[in-house]
Amino acid sequence: MNSISDSALVAALRRQMTIAVAKQVASAGNLANVDTPDYKAVEVNFESALDARLTPPTATHAAHFSTTTPGAITTKETQGVTPRRDGNTVQLDQELLAMNRAGGDFSAAQTALAAKFRLVRYALNESR
Amino acid sequence: MSTLSSAINASASALSAERTRIEVAVSNMANAESTRGPDGQPYRRRDVVLAPDRTSSFDAALGRAGAVGVNVAAVVEDQAPFRRRYEPSHPDADAEGFVTLPNVEAQNEMVDLIGASRAYQANLTAIGLIRELVAKALELGR
């Protein structure tokens, strides 16, 4: 399990990036509708994101390598926000904060993944 | 990656919707004193109606969670009564000397303009953040 192409670690980083992208997409949609009457803000469903992290990748055959397709990430309406008078529940600051946070998460995972790939490349190049 | 492009599309649709709001608010301000329209009536203030754009999303068709864009559902005329001002020398004054003026209030248009330009900025920021994400992802190939 300590091989360079440690697939569990790579899969985890990949899931982290997928979740960050999903959060970014949800917030972008909310920001686009910041002035739409009766629009309800959505957020990434925490349970589905958690499942995507925790569920072990399923292999259909014992001889197969495990695939690392994360479970589908769903969104749900943001709860506990008092709607504005036009029925809209988008909060500008919260959405921009979420986008920045997701960007940071993505960046962190990307840095780790890049380090991982650098090791593989180092090995391929015979330590040159 | 397709979801990231859907996010950029959603932000871009918001940019164009907010630009429409700015255009409409500016034309309302420009016509605050237009007493003679094509139908002989004073200019009527226009309002933009925004609606979430749930139809054209490729991700929605595939059942994936994509970003929801926004589109301009309609530009409607404000049916509020016209303003009246006493100005007997005006060519469009009625028998009592009152001129019927458009139902445009400058303060309402200013509030609309500020709101629209803030929303425009927020969506530009969002596009910048998404672009950073894409650029960061592409760095993996280096």
What is the structural class of chain B? alpha+beta
Helix content of chain B: 40-55%
Name the helix and strand elements of chain A from N-terminus to C-terminus, one letter apiece.
HEHEH
Mean pLDDT of chain A: 81
Give the uncertain stretches of chain B in residue-range form: none
Query: Strand-and-helix sequence of chain B, N→C?
Result: HEHEEEH
Give the strand order of the largest sheet of chain A, numbering strands 1, 2, ... along the chain: 1-2
Largest sheet data of chain A: 2 strands, antiparallel
Percentage of residues assigned to helices of chain A = 40-55%
Count of alpha/pi helices of chain A:
3
Number of helical segments with 4 or more residues of chain B: 3
What is the 3D shape of chain A? Answer: elongated
- Mean pLDDT across all amino acids of chain B: 87
Shape, per Cα inertia axes of chain B: elongated
The Rg value of chain B, from CA coordinates, equals 22 Å
Radius of gyration of chain A: 19 Å
Task: Give a structural overview.
The complex is a heterodimer of chains A (128) and B (142). Chain A has helices spanning 7-32, 46-54, 92-124, and strands spanning 42-44, 75-77. Chain A has three helices and two strands; from the N terminus they run αβαβα. Chain A has a two-stranded antiparallel ribbon. The mean pLDDT of chain A is 81. In chain A, helix 1 packs antiparallel against helix 3. Chain A is elongated, with a radius of gyration of 19 Å. With 142 residues, chain B is α+β, with helices and mostly antiparallel strands. Chain B contains three helices and four strands. In chain B, helix 1 (2-30) packs antiparallel against helix 3 (106-138). The longest helix of chain B is centred in the C-terminal third of the chain and has 33 residues, at 106-138. The two termini of chain B are 18 Å apart. Chain A binds chain B through residues 17, 20-22, 24-29, 31-37, 39, 42, 44, 72-75, 92, 95-96, 99-100, 102-103, 106-107, 110, 113-114, 117, and chain B through 3-4, 6-8, 10-11, 13-14, 17-18, 21, 50-52, 64-70, 115-116, 118-119, 122-123, 125-126, 129-130, 132-133, 136-137, 139-140.
